[in-house]
Design brief:
The protein has 14 helices and 19 strands. By secondary structure, the protein is an alpha/beta fold. The strands form four sheets. The chain has a seven-stranded mixed β-sheet, with helices on both faces. A five-stranded antiparallel β-sheet has the order 1-4-5-6-7. Strands 14-16-15-18-19 form a five-stranded mixed β-sheet, with helices on both faces.
């Protein structure tokens, strides 16, 4: 078939055999599973099939033998459909209805276009504005200037941006040293990779109560980056460290303002935000801050109050409308707005906490600790990510799978507080 523009679709065994007859592509004995949909199929220049693994996360390629030879690994994802342009220009892979398109020559992945800025971009522009207003602001990244948004800062302030390579431990200790000398460092690290620098955070930062901003990108479910990059544990492992606060912005505008709040503190503040675009809320210009350790009631209802930490505020508001519930935007996992928690406990028959992170030790646990310390007894439902690691996949679909979309949240609340308790049960 060579370099034509025809397209071949490989799905079931029959399709593979038909493709082999029509394009001079023959099966080998190495495909496994009888060339069924969970097998591996790769075409070399439209002529020879080669069995190789395909990695949906990295979309990697390799060159073998002669000519361009892309190779892919399905792993354990299951059934799939592979559509290949036979001039070997672009492949499109669909797994569970999630398309991933990329150019096999350059490896560039085609990403959906949106006018909504990503949280990463909001952060990058924020730190530039902070640095323009305060010459003490410096930025540090561990080999991820583009992934964290510090490439924006680096172009504006090349002498104040430091890339330490893949060494998060060194990044945090370097930030501590800079803070000791009166600078105001912002350390931009993926949430999951701050785990590598936990010792340095405690001994080099918290012990000395040093001021710095920890910008935790990819907090929560990250989807295409895969399970290794999911930021599930930052609230839990940061809450127990003295002199470290944790902010959970609900949208891109709050992210911008809470970063400013973080710069104003005399200790380390982590601002956690997810991968990808925000909810579409416009970011107000300037360097306005939000009150430290203070949440707000976004919807007043009755019977039950939903305490949302972070971007799950917006599905929580949908649920609030459906249930007639109060919805609070907590903003801070540490320090917790205890006055708001106690007020909501007094005014409602039950509480539900909501976070895109591990339930164990997370923000919901902080609410329970607050209630116990103050001798308040009220039913509490904790919603978040349970004792399991997340999968690779589309973030919206993963949130639905884990019951953290609006439908799942509503159903969880209805199951926990049925008709004979606080909330009427729908049919």
């Amino acid at each position: 078939m060579g370099a034509g523009n025809a397209t071949m679709v490989i799905d079931e065994t029959a399709d593979i055999e038909e493709a082999a007859r029509n394009t001079r592509i023959s099966k080998t004995n190495d495909y496994g599973s009888g060339c069924s949909a969970d097998g591996n199929v790769v075409v070399k220049n439209g002529e020879v099939p080669v069995v190789e693994p395909f990695d949906l996360e990295s979309s990697q390629m390799a060159t073998k033998r002669v000519d361009i030879q892309p190779y892919f690994q399905l792993g354990r994802i299951g059934r799939f459909k592979l559509t290949a342009s036979m001039h070997i220009k672009e492949w499109s892979v669909t797994v569970n209805s999630m398309p991933v398109q990329f150019d096999v020559v350059t490896g560039a992945q085609a990403k959906p276009k949106t006018n909504i800025p990503s949280y990463t971009k909001v952060f990058g522009e924020s730190v530039v504005q902070e640095a323009e207003a305060d010459e003490r602001v410096v930025a540090i990244t561990a080999a991820m200037p583009g992934g964290t948004g510090l490439d924006i800062f680096e172009k504006r302030f090349p002498d104040r941006c430091f890339d330490v390579g893949i060494a998060e431990q060194h990044a945090v200790t370097m930030a501590a040293g800079m803070a000791c000398e009166g600078l105001r460092p912002v350390c931009a690290i993926y949430s999951t990779f701050l785990q590598r620098a936990y010792d340095q955070l405690i001994h080099d930062v918290a012990l000395q109560k040093l001021p710095m901003v920890l910008a935790l990108d990819r907090a929560g479910i990250v989807g295409a980056d895969g399970a290794t990059h999911a930021g599930l544990f930052d609230i839990a492992f940061l809450r127990c460290v003295p002199h470290v606060s944790v902010a959970c912005p609900a949208d891109e505008d709050e992210c911008r303002k809470l970063l400013t709040t973080a710069y104003q503190q005399d200790h380390a503040v982590a601002v956690r935000y997810p991968r990808g675009a925000g909810v579409g809320r416009s970011v107000e210009p300037g360097l306005q801050a939000l009150p430290f350790a203070t949440g707000e009631v976004r919807r007043q209802g009755t019977q039950i109050a939903i305490l949302a930490f972070g971007t799950l505020l917006y599905p929580a508001l949908e649920v609030g409308e459906a249930l007639g519930a109060t919805v609070a935007n907590m903003r801070w996992a540490k320090p917790l707005d205890e006055a708001l928690v106690l007020q909501l406990a007094r005014e409602h028959q039950a509480l539900a906490t909501l976070e895109e992170g591990a339930i164990a030790g997370g923000a919901g646990s902080a609410v329970l600790e607050c209630l116990a310390l103050n001798g308040v007894s009220v039913p509490v439902l904790q919603l978040g990510l349970g004792d399991a690691l997340t999968d690779h996949g589309d973030p919206a679909k993963l949130l639905a799978e884990y019951g953290l979309d609006a439908h799942g949240i509503e159903q969880s609340i209805r199951r926990r507080f049925p008709q004979d308790n606080t909330i009427p049960l729908r049919a």
